[in-house]
Amino acid sequence: MNNTVLIMNNICKSFGSTSVLRNVSFKVNRGDVLAILGRSGAGKTTLLRTINYLIEPNSGEIYFNGTKVINRRQTIRSVRSKIGFVFQNFNLIRHLNAIDNVALPLVKVKNMNWRQARKQAEKALIDVDLADKTSNYPSQLSGGQQQRVGIARALVMEPDLLLFDEPTSALDPSLVGEVMNVMRKLSLLGKTMIVVTHEMRFAENTANRIIFMENGEIIEDTDPISFFNSDSVEIKGFLNSVSEAV
User: Which residue segment(s) compose the domain that 124 sits in?
Assistant: First the structure.
């Protein structure tokens, strides 16, 4: 099996006259936990959303599991079925309970019947430590629990790649730990993950790679030890700004 899950080759994206991504290139291997860091406006979320064509790049090439991703409905649908996306603001359906929120992609994408889908959804909720919350609606869950439902919804599709867009930014600080613990557990299980985050402890202790972005470009692509001990003025300035914000 090819060890490379994702290749991003010279990705560019502009919104009007504003250039957001400039010739971004990197690859992700199976089992990588890649943290994408940078200041607000660096292009991190836009980059993440180009991977499964939630945002279409203006130019460049994307390869997922060896197949070129192109703007065709069948291709994009196939790619998205193997990429889990965990959103910043949970994106749960309010009138569905936890188990049905998780089961819904199996029904819609894999045409599974609800009984079978709920069985798999229950297992996914157990994996994120929510076995006792299957019947709860989003309004009955804390922010951390809602985000863990979001992670279970991504996991239930058995994806080859998990994308996380600032998964703790909408949470009260007291709830961040429970989501980070689930993500660390996933990393130990060998899940391939790309995580846009401001959680430096996660980047330092869980990620095996760090990409640092500024102004739509990759400034550094390295391991955590090298990143956190870098002499780069840009990286030192970023780390100082993050520590001052805590």
Answer: 91-158
Is residue 82 within 8 A of residue 69, CB to CB? The reply is: no
Name the pLDDT band for 245 (thresholds 50, 70, 90): low
Instruction: Give the containing element (helix H, strand E) for 84.
Output: strand 83-86
8 A C-beta contact, residue 125 and residue 48: no
- 180 — pLDDT class (breaks 50, 70, 90): very high
Q: Mean pLDDT over residues 24-53, rounded?
A: 96
> For 90-106, what is the mean pLDDT?
96
The answer as to whether 32 is a domain residue is: no
Per the structure, the count of domains in the chain is: 1
The phi-psi region of residue 89 (left if phi > 0; otherwise alpha if psi is between -120 and 50; otherwise beta) is: alpha
Residue 43 lies in a domain: no
pLDDT tens for each residue of 133-142: 999 999 999 9
Strand, coil or helix: 224: helix
Alpha-helical runs (H) found in 81-198: 98-109, 114-127, 143-155, 173-188
The span from the CA of 150 to the CA of 125, in Å, is 10
Distance (Å, whole) CA 116 – CA 112 = 7
Does 217 map to a domain?
Answer: no
